[in-house]
Amino acid sequence: MKERLPLMLLAATALLPVRAQQVLVCDGATRFPLRDVQTFIDNRLIGKTTYQGL
Questions:
Q1: How confident is the model at residue 45 (pLDDT cuts 50, 70, 90)?
Q2: Closest CA to 52 of 23, 29, 19, 28
Q3: Looking at the domain assignment, is residue 10 inside a domain?
Q4: Is residue 14 situated within a structural domain?
Q5: I need a surface site. Which of 6, 7, 12, 20 has the fewest CB within 10 A?
């Protein structure tokens, strides 16, 4: 039973929902969404914004 406990805990955490943040990138003056803005976290490229600024 003790050998199965870590496996059961791992399986239970895999079923939990994951919620990602979604950020809208806008121009400060016009508040118009900006497309193709590169986003970085800790100097690592995470991605680019879509045409909607997301």
A1: confident
A2: 23
A3: no
A4: no
A5: 20
CA-to-CA distance for 24 and 47, rounded, in angstroms? 13
Q: How many domains does the chain have?
A: 1
pLDDT digits (tens, 9 = 90+) for 2-30: 667 777 777 777 776 766 777 888 888 88
b/e sequence 2-41, b meaning 16+ C-beta within 10 Å? eeeeeeeeeeeeeeeeeeeeeeebeeeeeeebeeeeeeee
Residue 37 near residue 47, CB atoms below 8 Å = no
| pTM over cut 0.70 | no
